[in-house]
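Residues and backbone
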Amino acid sequence: MQTVQAAFKNADKEALIKKYLHEYPATIDDFDDGLTVGEAKDLIQKQLSEYIDRLRSIDIKQPKDGCQDWIFYVYHCLDDEVPTARVALSRLSDLREKGVAAEEYGYEFTEQAKLMGYYVADNKLTQHYLDELLVEIMYEASFFGFEQEDLQDELDELARRKKEISQGKAILFDEFAKKVGFTELDEFSPLEEKYLEKVIAYQIKISQNSKLTEIKQILAA
């Protein structure tokens, strides 16, 4: 296995930038009004190049529970009935203990310095989709800015909301829905419900089978 940072160092920077802009295209609204389309294109490519350089060179920060227990890997699932490569972040210890039932974690609130010390699985499917995995990490890890300049503010806001929930001050969804006039879609017919259950069951089987295959390869390495 290699670290996420090592994977970025070994990757083709230009290929990552091209794939990133394909998956997450910039719009003119992302830039100052005075910029031309060409200037905006040059600017975002420069920003992404500097961002990748940052991820390649940032000093890895060891979390209290250690980087070694966190691993990114890829498995197949169905997304709107289309076979899709899903990037997952799990604890290696959970994969050993729980298999396909292992938790998958979000990481947009995780410091880039910690993420770069996590591991990338070296099983076949993960390596096949390695650029896609790195691009998704780039996107999630820049959710609060390329240098995560807004991360601390968001963490403070998250802590404030948790406190409100614990004190019973948060608005429940039912209250919110009633306030904004949200209504659910009409119920499915009994026959539609039956077909829907079959579709969901097969979706689960596909993702679990793929996940199990990849986890076995990861643990066998």
